[in-house]
Amino acid sequence: MRAARLYAPGDLRVEDVPRPEPGPGDVLVQIEVALTDGTDLKTFRRGHPVLAQESPAAFGHEFCGIVDGRRVVAANSAPCGVCDGCARGEQCRDLVFLAGAYADWLVVPERIADVNLHEVPRDVEAEVAAMVEPLACCLRGVERANIHAGDSVAILGAGPIGLMLAACVADAGGWPVIVGGRPERHQLASLFGAETGPGTAADVVFEAAGTDEAWLDAVELVRSGGTVVFFGGLPREARPPIDAYRVHYEELTLRGSFHHTPATVRAALGFLASGAYPWERLVTHRVLLDDLPELFADPPRDLLKAAVVP
Ligand SMILES: [Zn+2]
């Protein structure tokens, strides 16, 4: 079969490899479509400490595919159910990940298949269903933000994650404002329930850009007594100089949000199927698997997500 494998930052190759063999309990999925996302682009450029440890590394984690004639999606990880984090209802400390969705076939490990593999509801397009993982992360973020009806919620980051967060915030009763981004994103923002603007003195601020500057901007933007959710990860060695005065004297709440849970994965699939927002607008490009390295090497300016077809 064909598969895209990452040899080193910037060195992605589509090659012939043996079809993966599922072990007991694993599920072999024939990929219909995989989607690119910001994490993949970041990994392509600078590698990834968790998701691309080997060389070559299997690559791609948002997908929709076929098992025994049924259309399915799966999240890219599953919790262990026994660690300290799982016992406390917090994020699992021992997540198992999958990778390799940029390929003809993908093995979903047993632990993920057991809790995070779902049949796609009828009438949901494969490209839309494949967004279940990032949308589940956004629902997790909104859960962590503890949004109240009427809260103003600033979102730093106007990419697909920012737009999905906006939809989740709007659905939770908040008023999302997307901060920054190019003017052409404004119309799209309104389709996902958001305005665009400066976001000053917001009740809640989501950092969804994954940069040091955005972490600092988030702490600057939030109102006194407000909540910041750090949604975008930084490199391990990052130590952004947070405004300690504001955190202490203005009683800010700072929270991290990472990844998703089985509950938010199920909720995300329902949210996609509801058709409440024009999810399909987030897929702006379509490429064949063989052309994926070219796309990553020189991503178009207007790229949100690309559908990658084997
Ligand atoms: Zn666990």
Question: What's this, in brief?
Answer:
This protein has 310 residues and is an alpha/beta fold.
What would you call the quaternary organization? single chain
CATH fold node name of the largest domain: Quinone Oxidoreductase, Chain A, domain 1
Given this structure, which CATH class of the largest domain is correct? Alpha Beta
Unreliable runs: none
Total of DSSP H or I helical runs spanning 4+ residues: 11
Main sheet attributes: strand count, strand direction, barrel closure: 7 strands, mixed
**SSE ordering:** EEEHEEEEHEEHEHHEHEHEEHEHEHEHE
Give descriptors for this structure.
7-stranded mixed sheet, 310 residues, Rossmann fold, 6-stranded parallel sheet, alpha/beta, single chain, 18 strands
Write the layout of secondary structure elements.
Elements: E1 2-8, E2 11-16, E3 27-35, H1 38-46, E4 57-58, E5 62-67, E6 70-74, E7 77-78, H2 84-87, E8 96-97, E9 105-108, H3 110-116, E10 117-119, H4 126-129, H5 132-145, E11 152-156, H6 160-171, E12 175-179, H7 185-191, E13 195-196, E14 202-207, H8 212-221, E15 222-230, H9 244-249, E16 253-256, H10 262-274, E17 283-288, H11 292-297, E18 305-309
Parallel strand pairs: 11-12, 11-14, 12-13, 14-15, 15-16, 17-18
Antiparallel strand pairs: 1-2, 1-4, 3-5, 3-9, 3-18, 5-6, 6-10, 7-8
